Amino acid sequence: MLKQEILETFAKRVSLLRKDRRWSQKDLAEKIGGNVTLQIISNWERAYTRPEVEDIFRTAEVLEVSVDFLLGKTDDPAPQHSENPAHNIVDLKKALLDESALHWDGHYIKGPQKDLIQRLVLAVIEKEMNELS
């Protein structure tokens, strides 16, 4: 689980970024998609509930900021691209959620294999985030 301090930073930053864009909570929920509703956004902004890892990534993408910024690891909102592959998880996430097929060594990865890879990556990220608490 996210530490309360991180949860509160996430809450403040999501609220501020949403208001800067003059979006309602409903607008943001619709842009994030998935299972995110107006009520979920409201709960996030009051630091009542912990967002799912997948929702944190989608929220960062919609708000055009880095996940690190939303979680308070940096005060620089710009998504960063690092030479260290471990720092580019957002790019991997985007590739896995994209409808197009992936390829590895000339072989296409799609359908069930792509779904499995996505679940494995999300599990690793979830484990790392749980270790923050």
UniProtKB/TrEMBL annotation:
Q: Which InterPro entries match?
A: Cro/C1-type_HTH (IPR001387), Lambda_DNA-bd_dom_sf (IPR010982)
One example GO MF annotation: DNA binding
Q: Which PROSITE patterns match?
A: HTH_CROC1
Q: Which segments constitute the HTH cro/C1-type domain? A: 14-70
> Which keywords annotate this record?
DNA-binding
Query: What is this protein called in UniProt?
Result: Transcriptional regulator with XRE-family HTH domain
Organism from which the protein derives = Croceifilum oryzae
